[in-house]
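Standup notes
- HV: blocked on the assembly model, inputs below
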Amino acid sequence: MFLMEEHMHIQFYRSSSGTNYVYEFIKKLPKKTVKKITRQLELLEMYDVFHCCQAGLMKKLKGYDLYEITINFNNIGFRIFCKLKREECCLLHIFVKKEKKTRTRHIKTALQRATDWEKQLALKLN
Amino acid sequence: MYLKDFKRDMLENESVKKEYERFDLAFEISQMLIEARIIKGITQDKLAMLVGTKQSGVARAENGASLPSLTFLNKIAKAFKTRLIVRFAFMENSQVSITSNLMDYHKDSDKSIRLDDKETLTYTSSNNPVPTTTFPFTIGGKSC
């Protein structure tokens, strides 16, 4: 498992058309939930992935190169799929968990956006 | 867009800013518990085992909707091998503060760390400095 010891830099994925999916989703939520999500993300940024994984706030998806951030508030379970590369953590897809097993379409969406983000990173480096 | 840009954008909305800056004791305590768990690197389930309760009890305390009792917080402090300190802000320099008894901590320390013969929890954190002796009850930059 790929684990980082440095602090993460959390960023939001922006598609080539300029849509910021996670940002748009959070923006529509009630303000208390926005506060909870922001504070939780700030906590994740303060500590490294290893500690967050051990505390169960974050976990690696089995079989995929993706991580899942768990945020529970007011009996609503939010899940954020993210991709880690060096000290960058890109939030790709957010959804409300309604079933025990995560639908593959959520994972597929996140994987699609992950490849696009990697392309954007490569372009930026070049 | 980085997290700080996201936060700045969100706080441009007056109602969100007001909610963000509002001091909610239950919420701040829940965040403190989550942070303590990250520092120590243990799951809700393991913490529940150390405290002697169910995982749902720890989850309820971390939910931020209800206020956990001081007795429960004291139990958690013991499980983390620290003390719980409660005091008013104007008494910061005062010698008087409600702290859990150190003797109690020493008495129960063997019991609280050792789960059973097979599994012994080890709190390892080489990179992050772990508070060893005190567990200040400081919430959102304000001491309580």
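- HV (later): unblocked. Residues 104-125 of chain A form the longest helix (22 residues). The mean pLDDT of chain A is 87.
- Next: hand off to the docking folks.
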